[in-house]
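As described in the Methods, two query proteins were run sequentially through the folding procedure within a single session, without resetting any intermediate state between them. The first query and its resulting structure tokens are shown here.
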Amino acid sequence: MTQSRAELVAWAKDTIAHGSRSFSMASLLLPRRERENAWLLYAWCRTCDDVTDDQLLGMTRPDGAMIDAGDIDALTRRALDGDLPVPPAYAALRLVQRDAGIPRSAIESHLAGFALDRAGWHPQSFADLERYCFHVAGAVGLMMAVIMGVDPDDRDTLGRASDLGLAFQLNNIARDLVEDAEAGRCYVPQEWLERAGVTMADLADPANRPILAGFARRMQGRALIYDQSARVGAARLSPRCRMAILAAANIYGGIGTAVVARGPAAWEKRVRTSTGDKLGAIARAATQSLGTPPDISRAGLFDPFAV
């Protein structure tokens, strides 16, 4: 049975509320249409991620739990190419893509990131890692910018939206170095591993936490550069959209800062942001949204249009 927009929005709202409290809180700052479209996009992204990782809302699936499984590439294309029935996540994508005019290329780029994870991909260089971060997060930033009214031909602003996704993902990777290693995944470039004299199999060894702290500092340092570029683009958005983006940037930037501040102890307990931290990030965003950030060049940053 075909679901109405109201039904899909309600389902997507519940999905983001349970899947990401950070994004859910930041999204409440958006105007209604942009907020609903952000929820719809998130629901598709979350489902694709869960199918790829065999999880439920980013967590290990309880026994017997069901997810919206299936061929994410085929179902996505089925949703975009016509009006045939598809599961809710793909119907949500169909709705937001048609409503906001999200470029098909950005959707395809995001799917490519899931394909890398399914293939057990591992970066050889930091450039490889940046390309991966674009696929799994930068492309989402680009899609969100279009939802917020950025012209699909405005390459500089879209590039800066992609930059924010890269900043988020680099901070997430730094936080999850041990968790990923224990799951058999490694996003640390092979070049870094070789210089440090460790292997992928060694990353979860507590004896190597000082080395991981060094990796995290390098990732967070690069994330800060992407974050600064993204803030230039955020200043071009409408006031409410600008505040929402800055709030999200503050929340995820806080994750990277906390990981680096804890040093080798960063992986003894997963770094999280409390409700108070999130409210503080929103308060800072309200002030930041009134100012004008330095006009930073994107020279040397990942080019999402060269993929």
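Immediately afterward, the second query was submitted; its sequence and tokens are:
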Amino acid sequence: MRISDKQLDLVNRQIERLRASNNFYGKRLKEAGITGVSSAEDFLSLPFSQKQDLRDAYPLGLAAVPEEKVVRIRSSSGTTGTPVIVPYTAKDVDDWAEQFKRCYEFAGVTNRDRIQITPGYGLWTAGIGFQAWVERLGATAIPMGPSNTEKQLQFMVDLQSTVICAISSYALLLAEQVEKRGLRDKIALKHGVIGSERWGAKIRQRIMDGLGIDCYDIYGLTEVYGPGIGISCKHNCGMHIWDDYVYVEIVNPATGAPVPDGEWGEICLTTLVKEGAPLIRFRTHDLTRIIPGECPCGSRYPRIDTIQGRSDDMFKTHGVNVFPRQIEEVLALYPQLSSEYQIRLSHLEGCDTMRIYVETDGTQDWADLSEEVAHEVRNRIGFTPMVKIVELGVLPRSEKKTKRVIDERYD
């Protein structure tokens, strides 16, 4: 997707702001002698930025405005290293709310809805992002946050919530609990705005069936506003990205070279109007593709496909690079298997082992099915794992992101 002249003008304003601020990226631009770009080719010569750059800038090295213009601080979780601190100006907060407004409109939300918000609050961007536009819209926000599933279910029933906002793992947990407790006819949910994790067609269908909703896949990340920079429409054929706020490139994860529309690669984002902490060519590690052509909904906003994983999700075993999505693709071939699985890596007697646990609600001979799945995995990745099929509900459920790969080799 070639950058437009209008977007190039906005990038030049960001370059000017960054150089003036002398923040980490402004210094990088000065060192490279870059004062602006005049073409798409020039844009591709701009240096990338990455998560480690943002960590190295801790605490406030991302700021591109004077402190008196900063009205809010957001942060990544910091679970895998130094947290990233992201400052926002008043305009950034308003712009983020406007993007969320579009998301809710695409999801069919109106001022007559009651929106139960289950993602986390605090420094993380999720909960407050989902709430940002609800009140401006005139809808009713129910800011539950994560956990306390008993109260979540109680409020769904008692307050007759019509929209649920959640990460896919927690939406699945809620759907299973609704089914288990026979609450399906007692709730009034219509729509689900789901994001934060990769989730396949099976999980989507189980959530939709369990809660009686249609689902919309929302996209975003803490470093770039937060959730809400894009969402799927009712046709469920990709997520529309608000390209007046962010420019999306898809690049080869290994080389950083742009790939043609329609080919898979890594999302690289440039914020076009963000003031507090502008980012240029930020490598997200999320894997997807630009979907060419027009969407049936008629929206002009470009689309990216469902996130297929992360370039840094890869693990190596038996000398082979393996991505979790490769395992998911195999499991999706078997209708009798559920969407819930877990990969465990161990090192026994001088050799790596990979065990795959997957749930089923089927009744056929599990030993035969395990052997069939193991054989198909070998065809895809080159070695045979141990596959154990377990009953539905045996694998742990999470109120946060579900951990799919557990590496015990170095414990």
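The CA atoms of residues 126 and 193 lie 12 Å apart. We note this only descriptively and draw no conclusion about the first query from it.
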